[in-house]
Fold:
Amino acid sequence: MSEPIDLRGVSCPANYVRVRLALESLPEGAEVEVLLDAGEPVLNVPRSLKNDGDRVLALEAEEGHYRMRVRRGGSRDVW
Structure:
């Protein structure tokens, strides 16, 4: 897995759009890590990705932000 996509400080919906574009450039089943701010970003981005059919594998709080791991495609959510 490559470096996380750092979206701290990026507001909605731009943060979702950036994750969506990153996932679309990857093959089905590829995984990415994303750093998100608390509040709207951590609520809206995972929900939107799941609605698109992607799989949120992990969502963990870290100091001042969240780290999310998501897999492109997949029909069942772990988180």
